[in-house]
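Quick one: structure tokens for this chain, please?
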Amino acid sequence: MAAVLPALLATLAMQAIVVIASLIVPITVQESAQTLGVDPALVGYYTMVLWLGGMASTLFSGGLIRRYGALRVCQATLAIAAAGALLTGVASIAAFALAGFLIGVAYGPANPAGSHLLARLSPAHLRGRVFSVKQTSVPVGATIAGLLVPVIANAWGWQAAGPAIALLCIAAMVAVQPWRARLDEDRDPSAPAFAAHPLAAIRQVWALPALRRTVLASAVFSMGQFCFTAFFVTFAMQRAGFDLAEAGSLFSVGFLAGIAARIGWGWVADATSSRAALAVLGVAMAATALIATALDPGWSWLAVAALSAAFGATAVGWNGVYLAEVARLAPGGDVGAATGGAMFFTLSGSAFGPALFGAVAGASGYSAAFVLMAVVTGAAGLWVALGKDPA
């Protein structure tokens, strides 16, 4: 287990910081939208552009990891995220779109690179727990973002948050350099950096029925996660009357719950199966979305915090279990390539789900949007429950 600790710490920290960069716009959207004179619900389209960038970059992750090493790829993603974060401080729709795309490109390789390292170094019987601990990077990053970004925005204005987070990206990129030689010892400098057939990883994932079912369900779960991520701050401000700092603290509560949930679901998956855990998560996510439709100004901070925690335990809690299942089912044991192909499907939900949610919320209100989220996540959970493991 000691061999995996540096890889676990490095990948967790670096992905957490990219997550912080990805949340600058959703957290400050009420203020930036006022400056730009646009509807805050347009943040769904920012999220779509972000995850289209992630879908594109994840397809090329396998070759880059083999040639340069997983840690070097993660360092490069921090540099790209820093550039995107800087652009979030520019009061321009075009700058926001480019920022989203760059941060998405940075996000895409994070899971394939992390899975490559952890699958190589972690014991098989602990894989669910190790992957789930690593995936606490997302709620850890979101918790920090929910507390830190409003403080920066309230002190120096919303445009100051991006440059501050860009500095954090650069600092982390430099800090992990001493581990590079050790963790990237399996790199092959002669390997092609870019696959001749970048869609091969998608075809490989699609060809295995059990893996195909898992990745399609992940697209729906990802929709649920990033609808919560993109809209909860604005939802709490508009429906319950909280200010930015209060809504940001509520947002952080959800991701604090997500940290514990990801570890807890990893234990459940190791004790039962990843498929069973994913099925329960889908149904629980649907129930939480239905409860959200009742939010109104009469809810106390504590009641909304409980709702946020429920989202954290479900919509944020599934990723580590999912990646462990992908690693288990990876054809030929090529976890990096399989995760890259799988994440293409996962990120499609991240890209198009919030845009659809935002469109429904804009046309029919948040309650209708949360009902849609409940229907699709509940159906995905039941579908996973009906699946079978490969013979």
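The two ends are 30 Å apart (CA to CA).
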